[in-house]
Design brief:
By secondary structure, this protein is mostly helical. The chain has one domain. 63% of the residues lie in helices and 4% in strands. The chain contains seven helices and four strands. β1 and β2 form a beta hairpin. It is elongated, with a radius of gyration of 23 Å. The C terminus is likely disordered.
Amino acid sequence: MAGVGLLYLLTGLALTVVLVVVMVRGPRGDGGPVAVARRHETRISVAAAWGSMATGAVGSLIAQPAYGPASGVQESTLLPALPGLACLTFCLFRALGELTWPQPSGTVRTAPLVRRTVSDVGGWRLVVLLLTVVVGVATVVVYARGGNDDGRSITMLDNPLTDATESGVVQSYPGWDYGVPMLVGLALGLAATFGALVLVVRRRPLADLPTEHDDALRRTSADRVLGGAQLWLGGAVALFLMFGGVVLDLAHDRSGLSAVSGGAGVLVGVVSGALALLAVLPRQSAGSSPSIPSIRRTR
């Protein structure tokens, strides 16, 4: 648990540093609505990152393993749900930021009205997040069907390295006792993500801002919502896969599932972390405007 907590803490610190650097190194000559909106976006991104980290840290302290003379170490079934709860906190901070987004000012307000959907602003990142959740659900079902009836153990198989026959069970197996909280966490995190994206879609555009520039700001917000969700929910799936592979290996599983599960967990974790870091970078508009120098032209 200490290693997992440290990993998330370092990730949150890295995201914060990158966000602050992006804000500080941004164009200095524009003090208009775009610059104000970008600063607001960065502030809520930092607050959401650290708020979710705090949720994970507090949850880890509450869900400390219990020790008993008969059963040994008993892991709390709350642990698999913690990343989902942290994702929920992340999205709540993001939602608060959307509700306090800088509003148009002035007597006469003009803004382009463009019909958007969650899939429009989410793009391929939303597809990757949904696939990650599907992988998580499938993993829970596969592991739960292979465990014992108590939902948290698996019978030890013969040791392939010796001629001796070993008996007994391996505890802390990711069966239904751990799988159900995992599914609840994934559902809460995914629902909160969609809620935050809906607020991004319905956000009022800034006054006198061309459509392409408003899209750039809006998609930056959506990228960061999905980046944070991918980090937490993808991290949950990755840890579940890797932990399950370790338990299967301890039970002398000879089907190769332990190696496949561990390798898939590493892959999901690396991809989720990379997507989260890339989401920190702001989107750039398809066009440029001399009056709005803070958004650059893309090629």
